[in-house]
Amino acid sequence: MDLGLRGKKAIVTGATKGIGRAIVELFAQEGADVALCARAEDEVASAVQELKGRGVNVFGDAVNVRDGEAYKAFLEKAAGALGGCDIFIPNVSAGGGFDSEKNWVKSFEVDVLHTVRGCEALMPHLEKSGSGSIVIIASTNALETFGVPQAYNAMKAALITYGKQLAQHVGRKGVRVNSVSPGPIYFDGGAWELVKGTMPKLYDWAIKQIPNGRMGTPEEIARVVAFVASPAASLISGSNVVADNGFTKRVQF
Ligand SMILES: NC(=O)c1ccc[n+]([C@@H]2O[C@H](COP(=O)([O-])OP(=O)(O)OC[C@H]3O[C@@H](n4cnc5c(N)ncnc54)[C@H](OP(=O)(O)O)[C@@H]3O)[C@@H](O)[C@H]2O)c1
User: Fold this and answer.
1) Fewer CB within 10 Å: C terminus or N terminus of the chain?
2) Is 152 one of the catalytic residues?
């Protein structure tokens, strides 16, 4: 199946490692031009270098998405460098953490505000595209109770609701909005490697929840995101696509 990604222009936040990195790799492989950011300048530079090897147009810059002005400037530069934006993937998260008020504020600013700011700043480009598409990276943590009450889970729930409502609002302008909710995704240097080393009981519990006992890989999530973002998924809008290898137990009607 041709996803129709060749020549599309995609902006992905937080794409030097993990899920975001796998997404830009796959977009580039499919012939899409990509722009990415992360905080570590050297890692952005090396990701840009490697992606250019795929023969597509690549733009990258170091920015902390929590800094609203710097982040919006990055988005404009990225859309300028690519010559527009057809696909936007807000992927950065502040991650889990102890539930102090400080952590709630950080999670709101990073997870929610960076997504909302990005959607608003890029909407004129997405409307112009004719096949504009936003895929918000959420989490199964929003769908079922998981661990202790924490900002991360609540912010991901807010993002799914925001995406649904935005889809209704911008659909008539030809822009689709969806979210993808991964279950546990394991990669070297990722959150679950850390959990495995520091909270082995939680790691073992998570493995036991997955029918075939295997966490996903960033590449497996990237394939779901690439499809949902692509013109091939033209009827999918306002959906939350769960990709969790059976981790969650609810029936999704
Ligand atoms: N891993 C999982 O099991 C899992 C499961 C469900 C959902 N998710 C979601 O999937 C998304 C990606 O998670 P991940 O585990 O693949 O990656 P990750 O380890 O959270 O890394 C994400 C990327 O974002 C960048 N980043 C982090 N904070 C940033 C900030 N404030 N500003 C700009 N860039 C920032 C990182 O580079 P720098 O550190 O250099 O900035 C890195 O490139 C997140 O939304 C996460 O909640 C993950």
Assistant:
1) C
2) yes
